[in-house]
């Protein structure tokens, strides 16, 4: 069996700083600092250090015993800015940046000798405006091995720094991991603080470690269905197109007995190349080590029309494709009435029977889109007490939405219903999906519509530029952004999609970026996150990236 090289989407960066204070050293030695090049400090760095009582006029801001393994890559960076020791505490100021186009998780891991020090707090600011305070009670009690690949981390470290893990195992050291998620293009300036036990203030200290473990996120395999919904009639072929990234075993499984009885496998393709899969019990199509850089397609012959479902498994990815025997009436006669919907053809307005709101529709290529952002559900405040901003700054807690389709909840920009009326609501991913994880589901959309998949959004974007322009993540497919909105760079909105720059609601509860950005959820997961698209006022591209599901983004529904 041939197995080609696997393209791995996971990229792991390992950065660590260790602060040593060996027994027998006097405290004055820690203050005998080595030169530090302040020319690398930005005005924001200097302002932050001053606010934490570091003497930035002193050229010696780091201990001479500091051992660093900083990082500066195109995706992220970590740098120790300064250290400070006095009779009561030890402090380390650092800067952590997520320079990528997607959210990233980092573990901050203070490691110290038990009964000598006590980790107290990491306090800082994100993007020079959002204050973050991480207390000792916010640390995780899980073993490090359950959080990340410890063995891999050890191999990447300098020997002096890998010693931290030996000290944890053998020398009574404590590790206090803290998970921090940084949004794309974010900078975290922070100061970590340890309190020194009173009995240690006249003696020496064992080494103190501060580990940073950062993951670019992602999965080894990706799977997306292009034709999620199909309508084959009796004695017609049911064709499902899909895309994969990476290499893994592919299984295509009839999801119910009706699909087993009514649909007969015909062929499997990668682009125009026919592949020969194994047929397992239960009519399961199995192709080990599937790899296809182009579009895949599976064909079944419909012996009996009905409602049928195929379950696609590719590595750990699971998605579904559906067929129903009835072609939408709008295709047959140009007129459909169902559940209160009245659509003569794409381009006509319709009324959502759930709340009486009217939406316009627009044909973009072969897709029929709602022309406005969805605005359904009952408004809730972003923070429990109605504070506007980072909820914890106002003494509130974040108020997450539910997952029910029976009682949909929405956020409105600045908690003002008027913004929902103009620009639609913001929805967390789980609410938009009504608790489902199946891509292409109806979710909170009206009957006959669904939350678009990542592959369907790719069709929308590439249709405004060129096929194949959206190859990965980041800003791509110029000038698609200008064709999808009246508010982007060189805008002409020639597609009629009419995207508004409505901003978003972040996972800490703050509303931001209105008139500058807009974000649209897909129904496709990416690891623990979900794919989205974004438009920007000063760019004519479209951003593809994955975000934490507790963000509040806009929803555009796509007709089945």
Strand share of the residues?
A: 35-45%
Output the number of helix runs.
10
Quickly count the domains. Answer: 3
The count of DSSP E runs of length 2 or more, i.e. the number of strands, is 39
Secondary structure category: mainly beta
Helix percent reads: 10-25%
The global form is: globular
* Cα-atom radius of gyration: 27 Å
Q: Describe the biggest sheet?
A: 6 strands, antiparallel
The pLDDT mean sits at 81
Poorly predicted regions: 1-39, 216-220, 326-344
Give the terminus-to-terminus CA distance: 39 Å
Descriptive notes:
The chain has 560 residues and is mainly beta. It has three domains: 12-215, no CATH class; 222-327, Sandwich (Immunoglobulin-like), CATH 2.60.40.10; 338-559, no CATH class. 12% of the residues lie in helices and 37% in strands. It contains ten helices and 39 strands. Strands 1, 2, 6, 9, 10 and 12 form a six-stranded antiparallel β-sheet that branches. Strands 3-4-5-11-7-8 form a six-stranded antiparallel β-sheet, covered by helices on one side. A six-stranded mixed β-sheet has the order 14-23-22-16-20-19. A hairpin with a 2-residue loop joins strand 28 (361-364) and strand 29 (367-370). The longest helix is centred in the first third of the chain and has 12 residues, at 159-170. The two termini are 39 Å apart. Residues 1-39, 216-220 and 326-344 have low confidence and may be disordered.
Write the layout of secondary structure elements.
Layout: E1 12-19, H1 27-30, H2 43-51, E2 66-69, E3 71-72, E4 76-85, E5 89-98, E6 104-113, E7 117-126, E8 130-135, H3 150-156, H4 159-170, E9 173-175, E10 178-182, E11 186-196, E12 208-215, E13 222-225, E14 229-230, E15 237-245, E16 248-254, H5 257-262, E17 263-270, E18 273-275, E19 278-280, E20 284-290, E21 295-302, E22 308-314, E23 317-323, H6 329-333, E24 336-338, E25 341-343, E26 350-351, E27 358-359, E28 361-364, E29 367-370, E30 378-379, E31 409-410, H7 417-423, H8 429-432, E32 449-450, H9 454-462, E33 474-476, H10 480-483, E34 504-505, E35 511-512, E36 517-526, E37 529-536, E38 542-547, E39 558-559
Parallel strand pairs: 14-23, 30-31
Antiparallel strand pairs: 1-2, 1-12, 3-4, 4-5, 5-11, 6-9, 6-10, 6-12, 7-8, 7-11, 13-15, 15-21, 16-20, 16-22, 17-18, 17-21, 19-20, 22-23, 24-25, 26-27, 28-29, 32-39, 33-38, 34-35, 36-37, 37-38
């Amino acid at each position: 069996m041939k197995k080609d090289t696997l393209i791995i989407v996971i990229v792991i960066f390992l950065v660590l700083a260790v602060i040593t204070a060996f027994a027998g050293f006097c405290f004055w030695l820690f203050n005998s600092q080595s030169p530090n090049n302040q020319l690398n400090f930005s005005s924001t760095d200097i302002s932050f250090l001053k606010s934490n009582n570091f003497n930035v006029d002193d050229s010696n801001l780091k201990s001479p015993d500091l051992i660093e393994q900083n990082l500066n890559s195109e995706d992220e960076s970590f740098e120790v800015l300064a250290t400070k020791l006095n009779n009561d505490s030890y402090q380390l100021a650092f800067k952590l940046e997520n320079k990528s186009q997607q959210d990233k998780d980092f573990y901050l891991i203070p490691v110290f000798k038990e009964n000598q020090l006590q980790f107290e707090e990491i306090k800082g600011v994100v993007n020079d405006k959002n204050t973050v305070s991480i207390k000792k009670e916010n640390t995780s009690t899980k073993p490090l091995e359950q959080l990340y690949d410890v063995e891999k981390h050890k191999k990447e470290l300098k020997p002096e720094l890998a010693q931290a893990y030996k000290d944890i195992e053998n020398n009574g050291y404590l590790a206090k991991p803290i998970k921090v998620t940084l949004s794309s293009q974010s900078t975290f300036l922070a100061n970590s603080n340890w309190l020194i036990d009173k009995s240690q203030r006249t003696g020496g200290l064992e080494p103190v470690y501060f580990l940073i473990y950062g993951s670019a996120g992602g999965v080894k395999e990706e799977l997306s269905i292009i034709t999620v919904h199909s309508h084959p009639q009796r004695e017609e072929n049911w064709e499902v197109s899909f895309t994969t990234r990476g290499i893994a075993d592919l299984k295509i499984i009839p999801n119910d007995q009706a699909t087993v009885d009514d649909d007969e496998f015909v062929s499997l393709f990668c682009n125009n190349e026919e592949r020969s899969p194994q047929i397992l019990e239960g009519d399961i199509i199995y192709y080990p080590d599937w790899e296809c850089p182009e579009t895949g397609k599976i064909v079944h012959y419909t012996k009996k029309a009905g409602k049928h479902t195929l379950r696609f498994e590719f590595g750990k990815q699971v998605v579904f494709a559906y067929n129903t025997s009835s072609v939408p009436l709008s295709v047959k006669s140009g007129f459909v009435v169902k559940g209160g919907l009245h659509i003569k053809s794409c381009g006509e307005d319709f009324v959502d029977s759930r709340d009486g709101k009217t939406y316009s529709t627009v044909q973009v290529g072969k897709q029929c889109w709602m022309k406005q952002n969805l605005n359904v559900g009952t408004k809730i405040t972003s923070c429990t007490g109605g504070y506007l901003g980072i909820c914890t700054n106002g003494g509130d807690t974040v108020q997450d939405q539910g997952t029910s389709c029976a009682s949909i909840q929405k956020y409105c920009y600045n908690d003002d219903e008027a913004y929902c009326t103009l620009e639609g609501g913001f929805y967390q991913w789980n609410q938009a999906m009504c608790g489902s994880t199946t891509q292409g589901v109806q979710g909170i959309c009206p009957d006959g519509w669904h939350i678009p998949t990542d592959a369907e959004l790719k069709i929308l974007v590439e249709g405004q530029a060129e096929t194949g322009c959206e190859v990965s993540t980041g800003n791509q497919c110029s000038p698609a952004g200008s064709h999808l909105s009246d508010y982007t760079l060189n805008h002409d909105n020639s597609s009629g999609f009419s995207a508004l720059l409505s901003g978003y609601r972040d996972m800490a509860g703050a509303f931001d970026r209105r008139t500058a950005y807009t974000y649209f959820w897909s129904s496709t997961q990416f690891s623990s996150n979900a794919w989205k698209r974004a438009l920007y006022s000063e760019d004519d591209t479209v951003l593809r990236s994955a975000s934490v599901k507790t963000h509040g983004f806009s929803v555009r529904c796509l007709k089945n």
